[in-house]
Amino acid sequence: MSELSDSLREVMRGWPTGVAVVTARDREYAHGMTVNSLTSVSLDPPVITVSLAVQTRTWRLVTASKKLGVTFLAQGQQHLADIFAGKIPEEEDRFTGLETFTLASDVPLLKAGRAHLDCVILQEVPLPKSTLFVAEVVAARSDLSIPPLVYLNRGYRKVSD
Hints:
- By secondary structure, this protein is an alpha+beta fold.
- It is built from three helices and twelve strands, in the order H-E-E-E-E-E-H-E-H-E-E-E-E-E-E.
- It has a single domain (18-157), classed as Roll (Pnp Oxidase, Chain A).
- The chain has helices at residues 3-13, 57-65, 78-84, and strands at 17-18, 20-26, 29-35, 38-43, 46-53, 67-72, 100-101, 109-110, 115-126, 130-142, 150-152, 155-157.
- The model has no long low-confidence stretch (mean pLDDT 92).
């Protein structure tokens, strides 16, 4: 890794982000992964971007189906972030024992989250090791009474007033 990459990594560790799980389904197979590289780009039309590492299972499903779901995690849901970050054996189904639901499409969303988006892919921007997906939000739902799960400097944090 270059010196600039190391410096950027250090800078970004000091930038707090929310924690979300991006999910996808192609036919009967579903998968998901924890992300913090998600941004709202526009409210009218409703558009987000998310970056996924190339050749991950979630990347393959999003690329094939042209759809993705987003579950924003709540404070106290670190265990879900860890599951979808791959801290369980790769061959296991990450959805085992978790309640899911759908909004506008067949993409599974985690019922336990504090907010949810159902999206269709508008554009894919290839990068050297990842793809930036530009997606239109076709359905959204939230319960913002629960504080968000926040990630900062390699750890989960709580939001306080």
